[in-house]
Amino acid sequence: MLILRNVQSLHSPYTSKALPCYSSPTGPAKATSCTAALEYLMPCQPYLMGIGEITPTCCQGVQALANATVTSADRKSVCECLKQAALSVNINQDKANQLPKLCNVDVPVPVQPNVNCDA
């Protein structure tokens, strides 16, 4: 079970809301932290909120995040992080579902708020 601590915020110029970051408390350093995962996806926030279009910078971030999450532990950690962040910001679920395909990235789990990150 992921224990939440070290809450940080990443602010976007497109909204007054911030994406919170949750990280696991112990264990070896992960290749991709929650903060890094959210930073990769910050260019996608307007698209995911339904107030902007998808951009090349957004897809570059999606692809970089996919490349950075190499182990199953990384993928689980990032999955949990993004799941928590999506609950805090008004994300358009249809846009979130479309994002990997639009950016030509395969994700091992469906992009859904109730996804099982252990899968």
Automatic annotation (TrEMBL):
Q: What is the lineage of its organism?
A: Eukaryota, Viridiplantae, Streptophyta, Embryophyta, Tracheophyta
Identify the Gene3D superfamilies for this entry. Answer: Plant lipid-transfer and hydrophobic proteins
What domain of life?
Answer: Eukaryota
Q: Keywords, A to Z?
A: Lipid-binding, Transport
Residue ranges of coiled coil? none
Record-stated family? Belongs to the plant LTP family.
- Per the database record, which ranges form the Bifunctional inhibitor/plant lipid transfer protein/seed storage helical domain? 34-117
What protein name is recorded for this chain? Non-specific lipid-transfer protein
InterPro entries xref list: Bifun_inhib/LTP/seed_sf (IPR036312), Bifunc_inhib/LTP/seed_store (IPR016140), Plant_nsLTP (IPR000528)
Q: What does this protein do?
A: Plant non-specific lipid-transfer proteins transfer phospholipids as well as galactolipids across membranes. May play a role in wax or cutin deposition in the cell walls of expanding epidermal cells and certain secretory tissues.
Q: State the Pfam families in the record.
A: Tryp_alpha_amyl
Q: Does the keyword Transport apply?
A: yes
